[in-house]
Amino acid sequence: MILARHAEATFWAGRLLERAEHTTRMLDIATRDSMHFPASPVQPEWQRLLDVMGVGQTFDGLGLVPDGASVAQFLMLDEANEGSVGRSISQLRENIRTVRDRVPVELWEEANRLLMTLREVEGKLPPEPFELYSTIRRRCHALSGIVSEAMPRDEAFTFLVLGRMIERAIICSRTIRFLVLHPGHTLDEGSILRTVSSLQAYRRRARQGGDAYTLGAFLLQADDVPRTVLSCLRRADGRIQRLIQTTSNGLAPAAMVSGRLRSHLEYSNAEQELRNNAWALLDRVEGELVALTAAIADYAFDPAQIPDMHSQFVRPGQATQPNRSGGGR
Question: How far is CA 182 from CA 226, 250, 275, in A?
Answer without folding.
Answer: 25, 40, 13
